[in-house]
Structure prediction request, 229 residues.
Amino acid sequence: MVVSHPEISGSQTQQFLKKGSESTDAIWHHIEGLKSIEVDLERQLLESADRIIFQFPLYWYSAPAGLKEWLDKVMSRNFVYGDGQFHLEDKEFGLVVTTGLPEKDFQVGGAENMTLDQLLSPYRAFASRAHMKVLPMFLVDQFWYKTEHQQMQLLIDYQRYISQKFPDSLKNRQSWFSEHLAKFVEGLNKNEKPTGNLILDTFQQQIDDLDQLNDTLQMIKEGEDDNLE
Prediction:
């Protein structure tokens, strides 16, 4: 995760997301916190990643200057595509964008009269030029106005965005929740583990029941298709 924020220690939103990322395998790479941009090292980190995410607050319809400087130094033409090789080819690319305005303002007819996809299209263009797989944007709007329940839901959605397999299908969601629930139960103390294992078993049984139901529905659909021939 390439994180850009010039005053990150004072950002409640970024500190919340940073804490959330710690329970995943994601690497939190804050570029303004670097003593210097070591180009070769930065490129090695990028090439070793399966998913590359740019995370930043929206500053005047773009990212902070720190990300622009990092991009200009690290993403040279030869590294991205110019030497006939695509060093980032087939890697997944995502954007996590935080805003002080509500999501409804970023639409035609809204306060900004443009969508975030339109405003941030240069990043999608870069990813496309690098032959990367572009993921849907993840928006965090008006974090400080969210209720505790909304923040907890945001935390789960954020963790899934940075670590769950894409596409965001029901099957991939089930696998993600099953894996993380198992890790959570493993970390419980001796007295809490029986209850945790019961919850885990119940969750797995529900997945199995749903799979059986989907199989049954598929058989019914195939039967109906045969009758139409």
User: Anything to note?
Assistant: The chain has nine helices and six strands. The mean pLDDT is 90.
